[in-house]
Write a structure and sequence with these properties.
The protein has 107 residues and is mainly α. It has five helices and three strands; from the N terminus they run βαβαβααα.
Length: 107
């Protein structure tokens, strides 16, 4: 999947590619670098030579397979169920701290 976007709000296209085990080449800018992590080849989207070099790297079967595996692993980081669980746990902790603070102030 080749996505040398000049701007992307979140990076959902990368996650979609990771989900179907597709190696990714993307731009080294905006949110794409953060979403991609080490699971994609990041290039300068304004430099044709950088894009061409990245495409040549992707043709290597070992590189492609490594990117597929890293993409699946990276995808787990953005799983909505995991995010909900983490958020829920943080909210429970925050509520407990708030109750403890109110108890201390009332004492």
């Amino acid at each position: 999947f080749v996505f040398p976007s000049l701007y992307e709000g979140f990076g959902l296209p990368l996650l979609e590619a990771f989900a179907v085990r597709t190696p990714v080449l993307t731009a080294a800018n905006s949110s794409l670098v953060e979403v991609a992590g080490d699971a994609a080849i990041c290039v300068d989207p304004r430099d044709p030579a950088s894009i061409a070099t990245g495409l040549l790297q992707m043709r290597d079967p070992q590189v492609a397979e490594t990117l597929r595996a890293k993409g699946l692993a990276r995808l787990e980081r953005f799983d909505p169920a995991v995010s909900r669980e983490r958020l829920g746990a943080e909210l429970v902790k925050a509520a407990a701290r708030s109750r403890a603070d109110r108890s201390r102030r009332a004492s």
